[in-house]
Each structure stands twice: as structure tokens, then as C-alpha cells.
Amino acid sequence: MRPSRPFLALVLVLTGLSVLLVLIGRDVTTAVATLWGGLVLLSVADLFVTPSRRNIAALIDLPKSGFCGTDVPLVVDLSARRGHLPQQFEIRLNMDDGLDADWDEAIRLEGNTSATRLETAMMLGDRGEKALTGLAMRYRSRLRLFEIIANWPLDRKISVMPNIAPILNGTIQTQMLPLLDGAKDMQIRGDGSEFHQLRDFVAGMDPRTIDWKRSARMLRLTARETRAERNHQIVLCLDTGHLMGERLGNLSKLDRSINAALALAWAGGLGGDLVGFYSFNSRPHQFIPPRPGRMAFSRIQGVSAALRHDSAETNHTLGLSNLNAKLARRSLIVIFSDFVDSVTAELLVENLAVMTRKHLILYVAIRDPALQELTHPDAISLDAVSRSVSARQILRERQQVFDRLRRLGILCLDTEPGALTPTLVSRYMDIKAQELI
Question: Which of 103, 183, 189, 373 is 20 to 30 Å apart from 51, CA to CA?
Fold first, then answer.
């Protein structure tokens, strides 16, 4: 409880009157005592008719788990044991970093009610075990002389996991249909190198698919159907250095990369490939050897959920050379990383050039939309022009690095944060269909 502004204003007025009475009169003790006694009685009456903190009960309803980057419902039930709740109040929650949920405006109840339910959406921004530690409610007394602050300690936890919603709702499986055996398997026949079946040649088919020896033996035109080869190795390589901790919207680059990597791991399992996992920053970290995708998915999900970005600079030489030594078979290595300019990317380019002699490299970077916005300022000023020139220089150097990587035979994917997952899965499908591995 603390005095409100009207109470402080009233105290100042009474103080001024008391000083004035003392200056203009002699026996003013009774009048001054009456003024201050009235204020005390008014304060006591105000507190008596105002609902106390002990009279209010609060309950929190929160899911036990959720996906990072998504909203989960948060429900607060308030009830008065006697009488009714304050008609206007504010709610605040004490929570760990990475959670965001608050009522921005004061809540106003219609009429006198003894119970109410408040609903809002809690934003889950970081992975890990998060906790709500307290609930605070602030409201004014009936005569608005005091501000009552009620606090309830909480011990509610929520487990924030990498976002696998595209996997659960079937989005990845739908996108992968052209590579799956079934109704749409015909779309990739003839594009691969693995024999599938023989069939009669009909008008409209590619004449290059005719098997002339079998056609001569069977006395009719017979075509060979092929399909994309399976059982390739895919290694998901995540850079967890300090650059990956940059937040784009409500998620960091590392969180967005983990979400996309898990989607690709599931797509690799559907495509019949073996999926592995590797992470590094200033030094190498855990390596999961490639396994059948669906078998490896749960382990990759568990390891990636515990990843945290490091404040140190990434050592690409140590990390990538360590990975290169662990892989004996040609693989598709998908590297999620980032760089600032062409100078900091020099070691990255040199190590990728070494790895591309044996493996197929797909370098994935997340584009910052804010840089593109800075290149076209809304208002023309010296400061805006300076930022625009700097942003254009950064984008130019970034493009030069990607051009250099492509000349080395490295596949590059530089995309917007929201389009990372579908674009990455589409690129994987193209690689499979073109037999690049």
C-alpha cells in the first residue's frame, strides 16, 4: 500500500492551511488538529471499505509446454472471498526472460462482481525451462486515497521447446509428397539414377527412356523408369556463436535455425535419408552420426533443445575441420551460420572450400529485414543517409561472399526469417531430384 497522488495533494493543501492558520491566528491548535484528524478518519474509512489483499484469491492456468516463437493461452482467475473485486486494476507478472505476457491497459470490470477470468496470450521467445514467479495486482482504494498492491508468489513452470508445429500439422509431409512413394511418385520418375521399373512406352514419354535391348526381346517398345536414389547422408551443422544470438523479431537466429533444422531432419526421414547433427562455436560440440531420419529425429530434437548461443566468436576452422574428419562418406552438409562482412567470412570461405571437395555443402544464412529497410529511408536526413549507405555496404559485401561461395560450387540459401523452413525443405527436394549428392 502507498499513498496516491490525490492523497499527497490533500496533504499539501492541509499543510498550507495549517501554516496559514498559524500565521494569522494565535489559538489554532484545535482547528489544525481537527483538519488532520479528519484526514486520518477519512483514510481509515477508505481502507475499511476497500477490498484488502487477503480478501482476493488468484489462480493461474498455464500449459506445461509450448513451442518457441508461438503464443500459449494464459488464464488468471480472480475472486473475492467477501464483497466484490475492485472495479479497476492493473495486472503484472514476474517471469523469466524469454516470456512476454502482460495486460497493457488497466482492466475495468462492469458493475460489482465477486469473480472474473482474465485471458491473454503469452509469447514464448526462448527455449528452456521457464518459470512464473509472481503475480502483482495494483488498484486504488474506494476514495482513491491509496494504491493497494497485492502480490501472490507463484511456482508455475513451462517447458519451451523448438517449434515442430510444421511437422505435427503435416505441412512438411505435404511439401514432401513429390518425393514420397504414393499418388505423386510419378512426378520424380525419370529424374533419378536408381532403377524403378519397366513399363510399356506410350506416346508422350521421353524417347530417351526406351530400353532398346528389352524392346527387341519383347517385340514392343519398353521404357525404363528411374527414381531418386535414397539413403544419402545429411548432416545438420549449427553454429552457436555470438552472431547467432541476434534476434530477428521475437526469435534469435539460432532458434530459427533449430526450427528449420528439425523440419529438415523430419523431411530427410521421409525422403529415406540418414540424418546426423553437429554443433560448434569457439570449439566443437556434440556430434550425432547419421542415422535413419525418424530414428534420429527424437535425439536431434533433445540435443537442439539444450543449445545456447555463446558469447565468444565462432572458430570456423576448428569446428568445420573437426566435422570433416568425422565424415568418411560423401554427405550433404547443411551449415546454419552467419557473418558480418567479407573480412570475418574469410576463414569460413576457406574451410568450406576444403569441405566441398568431398561433400555437398548447403550454406544457410538468415537475412535481416531491417537492413533492407534502412537502404530506403522514409525521411531524408543526414543521419538517415548515413545509415542507408552503411546498410548498402553491408549488403554488398554479403552478396560478394555468397557469389564467391557459389563459384566454389557451394549451394547458398539466404532467405527471410519467416520463409526459412519451407525454402530449406524445397531446396532439399531439388537436391534430391537432381541427384547432386
Answer: 103
